[in-house]
Amino acid sequence: MPTLSAPALSWIGLNSIPGVGRTTFRKLVSLFGSPEQALSASENELRERGGLSEALITELRAYPWREHAEKELAKARNAEVTIVTIEDAAYPGHLRNSPDPPLYLYVKGALLPEDANAVAIVGTRKPTHYGLTMTHRIAYELASAGLTIVSGMARGIDTQAHRGALAAKGRTIAVLGCGIDVAYPPENKGLMEQISHAGRGAVVAENPFNTKPEAGYFPARNRIISGLSRGTVIIEAAEDSGSLITAEYTVKQGRLLFALPGNIGSPNSRGPNSLIKEGALLVERAEDILKALKFTAAREKKTDPEPAPRIPLSREEETVFRCITNEPKHIDLIMTEAGATPGKISGTLITLELKGLARQLPGKLFVREE
């Protein structure tokens, strides 16, 4: 069972009081020395030393903060979650040294010293096959070299980044825009469990338990993603993508910003291509990131796993399979290239799907299965 630091009670308690945001919290700690002393200060002390409004002084003295904090700590114990305050040794150093760091983090899993060498990978929730393939490849190779992969657990690029790191048996940190007990998106509940329970990283959140994934929480989450990392890689993002907010935080935090170029005709390429024009480092492979970070692989560099022996195919299946590539291709073009008939092409493609060699995408497009 994770241990909870004693000061966590007063940190959660002070932060729970209406009107006490991160700025006011820091002001009170600066004035009184600690959250405990701020909470125990008398009305006169708050009035004389704090320069606070009468409404806030009333809340500080009357709000049942201890009851709230004790309930939150009980939830943490039951969920095997550790609460790490910014003063704890386990609090990530890069994040502590960033502008506006979280006052404390809810952590499920483990944050390790080696996570100081981390790279964030973020992007669109609706990626192309190219985006998914490159995300998995880059995350896999970076994790194989010993870097921790940080992302936001969202659908699309984020999910693929976490999966790439896990496939390399590396570490990954998932930063949530909700409470740590809320699986969002719901289909990633298993992925969250895999990260936090297999010694492969941690799931972290800034928000209290039961916090729903409302839109306003995600920009704040993005500053944590970049703050945990030495650099951020943007892979496929539209012009209004939230990933570009992460890019802005990356620059403000003085970290390296990378972008994967894409097809100029694709809306998903506008974000990364624009960032490259503005000075982001162009990325074609993981090696580009490792060199920019001057990072020496902590363990033997891996390549993608050797493919399993392929299931035997009939001559017709082999002919069709050779016409399928890693780029999406329409069924009509596959049929023409394979010299197949309309009556047989669908059945052959279904057979290849069942054998795990091909995958159908929307619009009757097919690609080789990775």
Note down, in words, how this protein is organized.
- This protein starts with 7 loop residues before the first helix and ends with a strand.
- It folds into three domains: 8-79, DNA polymerase, domain 1, CATH 1.10.150; 113-292, Rossmann fold, CATH 3.40.50; 315-368, Arc Repressor Mutant, subunit A.
- The chain contains 17 helices and twelve strands.
- The protein has 370 residues and is of the alpha/beta class.
- 44% of the residues lie in helices and 14% in strands.
- It has a nine-stranded mixed sheet, sandwiched between helices. Strands 10-12-11 form a three-stranded antiparallel sheet.
- Helix 8 packs parallel to helix 9 (157-167), helix 8 packs across helix 14 and helix 15 crosses helix 17.
- A hairpin with a 3-residue loop joins strand 11 and strand 12.
- The chain has helices at 8-16, 22-32, 35-40, 43-50, 54-62, 65-78, 93-96, 129-144, 157-167, 189-197, 217-227, 243-252, 270-277, 286-292, 315-322, 331-338, 342-354, and strands spanning 82-85, 104-109, 118-123, 148-151, 172-175, 201-205, 231-235, 256-259, 281-282, 329-330, 358-361, 365-368.
Largest sheet: 9 strands, mixed
Helix proportion of residues, in percent?
Answer: 40-55%
Low-confidence stretches: 1-5, 300-308
CATH names the topology of the largest domain as Rossmann fold
Strand content: 5-15%
- The tally of beta strands, per DSSP, is 12
Shape: elongated
- The structure class reads alpha/beta
CATH class of the largest domain: Alpha Beta
CATH-scheme architecture of the largest domain: 3-Layer(aba) Sandwich
Strand order of the largest sheet: 1-2-6-5-4-3-7-8-9
Mean pLDDT across the residues is 91
- Total individual domains: 3
